[in-house]
Amino acid sequence: MNRNVPATTRLGYGRRLVNAGISGIRTGREDFNRQRASALVSDSAEESLKLAAIGACVGVLPVLLMRRRRPRLASALVLGVAGSALGFCAGFSWKTRKLTSTLAHSAAREVRRVKDEHWLDKNPIDYA
Fold first, then answer.
1. Cβ(4)–Cβ(109) under 8 Å?
2. Percent helix, strand and coil across the chain, each rounded to 5?
């Protein structure tokens, strides 16, 4: 990293990259069709609740299988919540992978465009 570049220039470039990423996500959402995207997200969340319940059961299972006379309620609760969260996140991310892919590709395209502009500003091409 070049230390001679002022911090304001680096911050401005970082801000342009973030804005380009956000703009790309908005463009990708419009390309995916908003009604279809919102229906996909709500259906995926509803279907992921089943996996959250399975994850909660799997999370509580080790506490119940331990050879203690009385299982610890706090451990069961923590592991159940963790299993539930993992199950929900896994199901939701799998079911919305097409939308996520569209948004990520669009954001990457916009960020790449800003990076190319920045490179050309620093390295002008002289065709003469």
1. no
2. 85, 0, 15
Pair of tokens at residue 54: 């399975």
Q: Letter for the amino acid at 31? A: D
Which residue do the tokens 């800003």 mark?
Answer: 114
pLDDT at 69: 67
Which two tokens mark 91? 């199901």
Which backbone phi and psi does 79 adopt, to 5 degrees?
-70, -35
The Cα–Cα gap between 99 and 25 comes to: 10
Rounded to an integer, the average pLDDT of 43-62 is: 93
Phi, psi of 66 (to 5 degrees): -65, 155
- How many helices (H) does the chain have, and how many strands (E)? 4, 0
**Model-level pTM?**
0.69
Rg (CA), the chain: 23
